[in-house]
Design brief:
The chain has 167 residues and is of the alpha/beta class. The chain has a single domain (41-163), classed as Ribosomal protein L30/S12 (60s Ribosomal Protein L30, Chain: A), CATH 3.30.1330.30. The chain is 46% helix and 13% strand. It has helices at residues 6-11, 22-38, 46-55, 73-88, 99-106, 114-119, 142-154; strands at 42-44, 60-66, 92-96, 130-134, 162-163. A five-stranded mixed beta sheet has the order 1-4-2-3-5, sandwiched between helices. Strand 2, helix 4 and strand 3 (92-96) form a beta-alpha-beta unit. Helix 2 (22-38) crosses helix 7 (142-154) and helix 3 (46-55) runs parallel beside helix 4 (73-88). It is globular, with a radius of gyration of 15 Å. Pfam families: Ribosomal_L7Ae. This is Growth arrest and DNA damage-inducible protein GADD45 gamma isoform X2. One of its GO terms (biological process) is regulation of cell cycle.
Length: 167
């Protein structure tokens, strides 16, 4: 699913009270992320996410963490701290299988100029290992509700499920 066919993905999502299958949650999460991207409700990157959480934790609906950073010890420590902060502040945390898949979904494929991002000339960041989704200004979309329902139905499951995003 790309930004161009976001509406097609949303039409495939059905609202129900049952636990969603892995395919359903993948579609719902993709649609939720793309809608948030289009509405400017995403914060990407570990350091930008930490800054957002420090300033406005009440505005964060969901924290999406990639679960593929086993080799980078420093990043794992940051993730552990972010996850603990989110749990302490009642922010939902969902894990996905790969930051590269988040980058394929949300990035535009062009190289990131860090100077433009730091200077505020570009809102796009190249780090998709952690993505925060803010609450919408209006009501939650169907995809938002499906993702939140999935979280609620799995919040007592340990270990927490890791959502496998399509390539």
């Amino acid at each position: 699913m790309t930004r161009g066919n976001i509406n097609k993905g949303a039409a495939q999502i059905s609202k129900s009270g049952r636990t969603m299958s892995p395919m359903d949650i993948r579609s719902a999460l993709q649609t939720c992320l793309l809608e948030a991207w289009e509405q400017g409700r995403l914060t990407c990157g570990v350091y930008h996410a930490a800054s957002m959480l420090e300033k406005n934790p009440d505005e964060v609906m969901l924290c999406v963490l990639a679960d593929d950073n086993f080799q980078d010890v420093a990043l794992r420590i940051h993730f552990t701290l972010l996850e603990a902060f989110c749990w302490e502040n009642d922010i939902r945390v969902i894990k996905v299988d790969a930051s590269s898949k988040l980058a394929n979904l949300l990035g535009d494929g062009e190289p990131v100029n860090d100077n433009d991002v730091a200077a505020g000339r570009s809102a796009r960041q190249g780090d998709f290992s952690c993505v925060l989704i803010e609450y919408p200004k209006d009501d939650n979309s169907v995809a938002d509700e499906e993702v939140l329902d999935f979280y609620k139905s799995n919040e007592d499951v340990l270990p927490r499920p890791v959502i496998t995003l399509p390539d």
